[in-house]
Amino acid sequence: AAEKTALKERIKRLLKEREAVLVAHYYVDGDLQDxxxxxxxxxxxxxxxARFGRDHPAKTLVVAGVRFMGETAKILSPExxxxxPDLDATCSLDLGCPADEFSAFxxxxxxxxVVVYANTSAAVKARAxxxxxxxxxxxxxxxxxxxxxxxxxxxxxxxxxxxQKQTGADMLLWQGSCLVHDEFKGVELDLLxxxxxxxxxxxxxxxxxxxxxxxxxVGSTTQLINAAQTMDATTFIVATDNGILHKMRAAAPGKxxxxxxxxxxxxxCKSCAHxxxxxxxxxxxLADVLxxxxxxxxxxxxxxxEAVRAIDxxxxxxx
Length: 319
Ligand code: 13P
Ligand code: SF4
Hints:
Bound molecules: 1,3-dihydroxyacetonephosphate, iron/sulfur cluster
Organism: Massilia violaceinigra
Largest sheet: 4 strands, parallel
Number of domains: 3
CATH topology of the largest domain: Rossmann fold
Strand order of the largest sheet: 2-1-3-4
EC number: 2.5.1.72
Helix content: 40-55%
CATH class of the largest domain: Alpha Beta
CATH superfamily of the largest domain: NadA-like
Subcellular location: Cytoplasm
Protein name: Quinolinate synthase
Number of strands: 12
Structural class: alpha/beta
Number of helices: 15
Shape: globular
């Protein structure tokens, strides 16, 4: 514990010395989330991370999350230095949507408006008309559908089919998935609900359709935390990465949170629902990158210029 406290103090000192600000996602280690909050940084969902990074005056941003979050920050602020604790922290959605194959898919369907999820590479964003996050994807697709547009959607098939069902839009879906959310099990969730009939169910829309179907609230990480805080219930079953429980418990003290069942977590594994790439962010590597200035995110400036249009469209829509 003494070692941890010393590391945290070192990080706080380095953030000041380097005039850097820490931006963290709700799935990373709770200590990093707390540090981001205590030092004037931000802990939030992907949309807010992007907006905060763009608007903050600091010349250096340290992004505790996964690679696409660092790349989005760089695309929005090419003049800033973006550091990440571990540059290998990727995402199964990003990995499952290589830019060349995606580009060929778009070429084959030139009549469709291309909407991509934030969890993609800069090159994929460069090929898109719109980038969206889970907090605003439904509203943006509803808006495009109202204009009579047909959509090409990538890469998350579960989020895509959820939005398709809600909006009735014509959507052609890339078949990617998140390896964390894909593991939530509808049948087991139904049984768990029966054991806790008073519980409300909070689900991230990267989960499979039969899990989403059992939700009381479907939303981004920020939206799920808000629901836990404001809903008139004391017990919640949570189907998303369990890193979120740190903030949920702090935001809704006295309420009770149960992890939704995955293939392995009922008896044998207490933390199956945790992203292995988010878990690569720790106090030690955060301190190290601040000290050395290594692990900088670079995005090809031309790719960045093309990608920023899709991100700006979302941010303008959200404003
Ligand atoms: P949110 O944008 O809902 O925070 O989720 C993005 C995500 O999947 C991070 O892994
Ligand atoms: Fe990607 Fe899923 Fe990890 Fe989010 S939780 S970064 S969507 S693999």
